[in-house]
Design brief:
The protein is mainly α. Helices cover about 40% and strands about 5% of the residues. Strand 1 and strand 2 form a beta hairpin. Helix 1 packs across helix 3.
């Protein structure tokens, strides 16, 4: 069976790298809006650096999901 890799970025709110990529594809343009929408990084804060990195990767270069469908963090 071919399992798709998914990384949970925020344990407090169960936000995955795919959720962040989907938000970026849907037009979310800044991290603060992402926090409002997904609540990522708003509880304990331990995921903040990782969430920012994933969001930056998905937001830049106009290609939120690489051609192979996997994020570098997956």
């Amino acid at each position: 069976m071919d399992w798709e890799r998914i990384m949970v970025v925020c344990l407090c709110h169960r936000v995955t790298d795919r959720d962040i990529a989907r938000a970026a594809r849907s037009g979310c343009t800044d991290y603060e809006t992402l926090q409002d929408d997904l609540r990522v990084g708003t509880s304990c804060g331990n995921c903040d650096d990782c969430a920012r990195s994933v969001f930056a990767e998905c937001s830049c270069a106009g290609n939120p999901t690489p051609a192979n469908g996997e994020l570098a963090f997956a």
